[in-house]
Amino acid sequence: MIMKFFITTLFILCHGICLAKDLPDGKKNNSSLSAEKAAEMISEANRANRYYLNLNRLTSIEPDVAKELAKLKSESGDLLLNGLTSINKEVAEELARFNGYKLQLNGLTNINNEVAGALANFQGKVLSLNGLATIDKEAMKELALFKGDWLILGLTSLDKEDAREFARGEGNGMSFDRLSSIDKEVAHELSRFMGYMLTLDGLTSVSKDVAHELAKLRPRLNTPSKFLRLDGLTSISKEVAHELAKFPGQLSLSSLKSMNSAVAREFAQYRGNSLDLVHLESIALDDLNMLRSALRTPVYEDTHSFGGNRYMLPRKLKDGTDAKKKNGKLIQFHQDGSKMTETVYTNGYVVSRTEWNEEGKLTKAEKYAVDGFFGMEGQSVDTNEENKDPPDSTVQLSETPLDASPPSTPKVAKPEREYPYDDLTYREGVNKERITYAKGEEEPFTGVGVKYHSDGRPSWESQFINGKQTSYKQYYRTGSKWKETRFENGKPALTLTWDEDGNLIEKETF
User: Fold this and answer.
1) Are 285 and 264 a contacting pair, CB within 8 Å?
2) Three-class SS of residue 320?
3) Which fold is adopted by the domain 4-224?
4) Which residue from 42, 248, 410, 460 has the fewest beta carbons nearer than 10 Å?
């Protein structure tokens, strides 16, 4: 229940890559289906335990056909009928008997109250009507009665009366991802929704007042914390961040690209379960450290505890900073082999960063606070002028030489064994560490893992005799070396990365 929304998303993605069954042979271009063919199709799907049925080519459907389709037995099954632009009450009643996971009717652009009432009785989990841009008041009231896990609507406008109806519903989740804006009154009504999940990904901006209302979302008694998704926002103000930081549940802002210090300081006050900033590209390292420090300890206002850190960050920022590296050093090089950046990490925090221009001049040498939110201040010298040294050009950072020459290789004994990455596998060790093994071996791997750039040739070769495959060969060294990682007892000690021209561009120690 803790990460219910993400599990829901995983189901959808999984279904998308699983076997999809179109119309029967000879019917792929047809827009209709007979009851007999539908029954045959469902019987075959049930025998094969197929849980994904794609019938998006259908543009019309009769009740007897809908009755057969609803017999798809899998409780995790998806029934996709996005080609239908209209259905009657009888068809809706039959489809509503489908007891699978998702019924998708995104081609419907308008429905009356009878159809809406029938669909609201859908026995599955997810009812998707994302093509439904407008709907009358009576039909709105009927749909609001849906009691499943997730109601997805394509409404492009929503007034406070409509919002009030949906907020009264007994369902567990609602999506209004085609709304481009909402006012304070609508946000206030939606904040009364007692289900688990509310998504408003169509909003590209929100006011302070709207954010204040949305942050009032609270879960029902004895239910998981709320999930609020605002993935259409690419930037927000300090005032909006101040309000959203009051939200006690899981907050997704995964489309935010940059964050200034004022916004970061507001989110350092975040009291919720999880803050998703997975696509963040630009943030000052002091601010990144501050967020990590503030959001690493659980401070929940509800009784449902979530383990681990309360943030989701990208692997790397736009400037190359590894936002998930724990310990060690990450060095990047200019094309001529001179050092460009050197970043030192301790316990997941960036503790220092040094930068040089292409002429080898020091342009930045900074130390960063690892507990900035709790009162410690960073010490830094900084210049944006390419050929100007910092005020104190003799400053030395801990274990960070300021010469422009490439750093020497750490003293790691180079093992003799060299394996392609594809021949390595991973298992969870003590404290959930990832331990590397060579496939088929029980001892942690000590050796070198390598990857190569592609040179355009096929990376595999098969031979066939009389239509049967007789041999298969995988080529690993198809181009110049791309990456090399040295492992000791299953743990990485050093990773080197080259571009396609053979230039060393990055060195990472652990």
Assistant:
1) no
2) coil
3) 3.80.10
4) 460
Pair 224, 201: CB distance under 8 Å: no
Nearest CA-CA partner of 88 in 62, 109, 106? 62
| Residue 351 DSSP SS3 | strand
Q: Is 35 helix (H, G, I), strand (E, B) or coil?
A: helix
DSSP-based three-state secondary structure for 232: coil
Based on C-alpha coordinates, what's the Rg of the chain? 28
Reported as a pLDDT band with limits 50, 70 and 90, residue 144 is very high
> What SS3 class is residue 44?
helix
Query: What kind and span of H or E run contains 90?
Result: helix 89-95
Read off the pTM: 0.73
Share above pLDDT 70 across residues of the chain, in percent, rounded to a whole number: 76
**Tokens 């053979």 found at:** 502
- Establish how many alpha carbons lie within 13 A of residue 411's alpha carbon, considering only the half-sphere containing its beta carbon: 0
Sorted by where each begins, the domain ranges of the chain are 4-224, 325-407, 418-509
Residues linked to residue 364 through DSSP beta bridges, in sequence order: 355, 382
Rounded Cα–Cα distance for residues 170 and 471 (Å): 58
Q: What confidence tens digit (pLDDT) does each residue in 45-82 have? A: 888 887 778 999 999 999 999 999 999 887 778 999 99
Tokens of 466: 């009389």
CB atoms within 10 A of CB 501: 9
For the chain, give the number of residues: 510
Neighbours of 67 (CB within 10 A): 18
Beta strands, E only, 319-368: 328-333, 339-346, 349-356, 362-367
